[in-house]
Write a structure and sequence with these properties.
This protein is of the alpha/beta class. It has 3 domains: 4-123, no CATH class; 131-305, P-loop containing nucleotide triphosphate hydrolases (Rossmann fold); 311-377. 47% of the residues lie in helices and 16% in strands. It is built from 17 helices and 12 strands. It has helices spanning 12-18, 28-51, 81-85, 87-92, 106-110, 131-144, 149-163, 183-194, 208-216, 225-231, 254-259, 285-292, 294-297, 311-327, 331-336, 339-352, 359-377, and strands at 4-9, 25-27, 64-71, 94-102, 119-123, 171-176, 199-202, 236-240, 261-263, 268-270, 275-279, 302-305. It has a 5-stranded parallel beta sheet with strand order 2-3-4-1-5. Helix 6 (131-144) packs antiparallel against helix 8 (183-194) and helix 14 (311-327) crosses helix 17. The relative contact order is 0.11. The mean pLDDT is 90. Bound molecules: adenosine-5'-diphosphate and magnesium ion. Magnesium ion binds next to helix 8.
Length: 378
Amino acid sequence: MLKKIVFFYGPKYNFKRHLPKSRALTTISELAIYSDRKMREHTFKIQSRRSSDGAAAEKQEERLSVPCLVAYSEQYASISESALHSFLSFIDQFEVESLYLQNPPAHLAEQFRNMHSRVRVIKYEYKTLDMEGLKRINREYPQVIIGQEEVKRRLLTALYPLAANKLAKPLVLLFYGPTGVGKSETARYIGDVVGQRLFRRQFSMFHSNEFAPYLFGGRHTGDSLAKDLMERESSVILFDEFDKPNPLFHSAFYQLFDEGIYEDRNYRAEVKNAVIICTTNYASANEARERLGAPLFARFDAVIGFRPLDDGALGDILKRSCREAVCKLSDWERKIVSEEDLYRSLIPLLYGGDGVRGVKRLVREKISETLLGDALRR
Ligand SMILES: Nc1ncnc2c1ncn2[C@@H]1O[C@H](COP(=O)(O)OP(=O)(O)O)[C@@H](O)[C@H]1O
Ligand SMILES: [Mg+2]
């Protein structure tokens, strides 16, 4: 008899903290395997009984005792569509005492409607950007992202209502500018300031035919954005290369940007007190408006442009990369490779190259070349 039912909405690491420590846990995947095996044995028994002229009387089998049944988000895919749709009868084959479900799909949760009073719902409280975080960005940003002073000013202004807790919806930002100038890195940095792992989806990675089920939710076994959002750890969300998908998909984001709700056939994610950052390679705000279309463009709380990096900024980034790379070397390697020589030999290569993206590789190659030269001379 079910004594305790818990629905947990949020990331796995925190769900695990709510699970009872003192009891043996059984997962729904384990039960699904067990149940399949039983079913096969049962069929086999019936067949063999028929062939042996129905001699043995059917013995009432005892139900397996399951003190604590747990379902992690990703495990709903391991049980069949029918077990999911009649979940109560599925678990009724067993003697389940307590049940812990992480992010149950809507039609599963619905089956517990009549037991409403007995279901305990826990929602994960996301850490969000606060004033301390805003001050930290103000202090650190020029060292983290070099040569984007204007971005810092616009970003702090845009983030203020979120940090001051004045928003009832997510804060939605559009970054535009050439590649390799610090757009994704800025999102990653805001993620670091807030804490927890940033939620990032790179939209260029999806092909059109797999993007539709991902956005709108297909079979319960497939990946979906709503499900992934429910499992996210962070209140900082990065939709990288947001300019890549077909404009057909834009309307999927209206409700998320307006109200912080993202819903598909199976799942419903709540995204409040969050910052959603969409990066694009548009050259100007005007181009972004034209290509994204007015209805979507109007939904951004701020549209922030990143400049191409000038020679001074590139030089500073190179200097920093040299310092970081040399720090990682051993004592004797540092006698062969000096930060100063490294920087001076690379600076002429920098401006002709592929900007900042190539910098780390240039530094790595130059270090290997120098160390190899030394080793061959010995
Ligand atoms: N302005 C910058 N200051 C410091 N590092 C930068 C800057 N721009 C880019 N980088 C570095 O270059 C790499 C690519 O930057 P990224 O932010 O991903 O570029 P994009 O603007 O295309 O999103 C990262 O490793 C990042 O650390
Ligand atoms: Mg990027």
